[in-house]
Amino acid sequence: MGLLDILLGRTKPVAPDLDRLFALPSAAVTLEAATGFTPTGRGAVCFATVEGAAFEQTHHEVQALLDADTDRTGPPVRLLRDEHGYSWLVSHRSPDELSLLVNDLHAVNSAMEVNGFGPQLLCSLAGFTDTGGRPLALVYLYKRGTFYPFAPLPGPEQRRDNALELQVKAVLEDDLRLEPDLSRWFPVWGAPGL
Question: How far apart, in whole angstroms, are the C-alpha atoms of residue 59 and residue 121?
Answer without folding.
Answer: 13
